[in-house]
Design a protein that fits this description.
Order of helices and strands: HEHEHHEHEHEHEHEHHEHEHEEHHHH
Number of domains: 2
Number of helices: 16
Number of strands: 11
Helix content: 40-55%
CATH superfamily of the largest domain: HypD, alpha/beta domain 2
Strand order of the largest sheet: 4-3-5-6-11-10
Distance between the termini: 28 Å
Strand content: 15-25%
CATH topology of the largest domain: Rossmann fold
Largest sheet: 6 strands, mixed
CATH architecture of the largest domain: 3-Layer(aba) Sandwich
Radius of gyration: 21 Å
Structural class: alpha/beta
Length: 359
């Protein structure tokens, strides 16, 4: 497959590993911000190819993982209402709330549909005008344009029984919060290529200059990641900061203007709680005033406060890159893919799921 297979070949990856070893003269800690990149690193054993002083930290780049317990509880509360069809991506169904998961709510009678696009949920709403159809809009800037398109289409088609429970996050403010933490050990970042394909690199240029830190836009194949790690190490060794695009075959500096226009039309920037990171200013998207009638939180006000998250999961430390799954006493014992204590074991992009599957 052109532009994929050549980035999976072993020899170029091993040659890049040799270059990284030669370039590294002191310890560095680099965080990949995307869960898809985490899985690619662990699956291909890339961290084992790096010199001893070079550490990869696995960050909060899994949208399922950073969705807080309160949002899960809100989703369960809405899904459990009579007359509601609740639509979600499959990863969200098994994420524990404070008392149960969406999957357990379905076993009690809630009508849940797994969809592959918010437009599937909109089509269901048009087919079932007798029911309220709610789509759980989670994710980073990569999934936000499709959620925006569903809202835009619903408004123009006059679909009155469709709404979105929005839990959309923005990556750059999370990077700022990670660096501001007193226990931060991050020297550089690998930015998520698919996020930058949508949003471009402008915000990262501002962020890198302000924080005086190198940020390298990275892809998802083994060679993509090793080339990005090499670029980050070379910048750190030279004392450079700024943004370097190591995924030019996909990412343009301006991103996708059409997607950005749709996001600006439908959403506004908001503050939102992140699992493990707390409330981060300007780190989320919420429906704008023109689309407020599609907001499921307004349409279905909460009737109960969520209970504390007391499952024993160390997600807070995992998502900040302070600990790894192997530091958790429950990993692979009380916490398994069949019986997860937290979202990082559930999601296909969660760091615990990666360690459990490949290690």
């Amino acid at each position: 497959m052109k532009f994929v297979d050549e980035f999976r070949a072993a020899d170029p990856v091993l040659r890049c590993a040799e270059r990284i070893a030669r370039a590294t003269s002191r310890p560095w800690s680099i965080m990949e911000i995307c869960g898809g990149q985490t899985h690619a690193i662990i699956r291909n054993g890339l961290d084992a190819l790096l010199p001893a002083g070079l550490r990869l930290l696995h960050g909060p780049g899994c949208p399922v993982c950073v969705t807080p317990v309160a949002a899960i509880d809100r989703a369960i509360g809405i899904a459990s209402r009579p007359g509601v069809i609740f639509c979600s991506f499959g990863d969200m169904l098994r994420v524990p709330g404070s008392r149960e998961s969406l999957l357990e709510a379905r076993s009690r009678g809630a009508e849940l549909h797994v969809v592959y696009s918010p437009l599937d949920a909109l089509a269901l709403a048009e087919a079932r005008p007798d029911r309220e159809v709610v789509f759980f809009a989670i994710g980073f800037e990569t999934t936000a344009p499709t959620s925006a398109m569903a809202a835009w289409q619903a408004k123009r088609r006059g679909v009155k029984n469709f709404s979105l429970l929005v839990s959309q996050f923005r990556v750059p403010p999370a990077i700022t919060a990670l660096l501001a933490a007193p226990d931060s050990r991050i020297d550089g970042f690998l930015a998520a290529g698919h996020v930058c394909a949508v949003m471009g690199c402008a915000e990262y240029h501002v962020l890198a200059a302000r924080e005086r830190i190198p940020i390298v836009v990275a892809g998802f194949e083994a060679l993509d990641l090793m080339q990005a790690i090499l670029a980050c190490v070379e910048a750190l060794e030279a004392g450079r900061y700024g943004v370097e695009n190591a995924y030019r075959r996909v990412v343009r500096d301006e991103g996708n203007p059409a997607a950005q226009k749709m996001l600006k039309e439908v959403f506004q920037i908001a503050t939102r709680e992140w699992r493990g990171l707390g409330a981060i200013a300007d780190s989320a998207l919420a429906l704008s005033a023109d689309y407020a009638d599609l907001d499921a939180e307004r349409r279905f006000p909460a009737t109960a406060q969520p209970a504390p998250d007391e499952h024993g999961c160390i997600a807070a430390e995992l998502l900040r890159g302070v600990k790894s799954p192997l530091d958790c006493p429950h990993f692979g014992r009380l916490c398994t893919p069949e019986h997860p204590l937290g979202a990082t074991m559930v999601s296909s992009e969660g760091v615990c799921a990666a360690f459990q599957r490949y290690r």
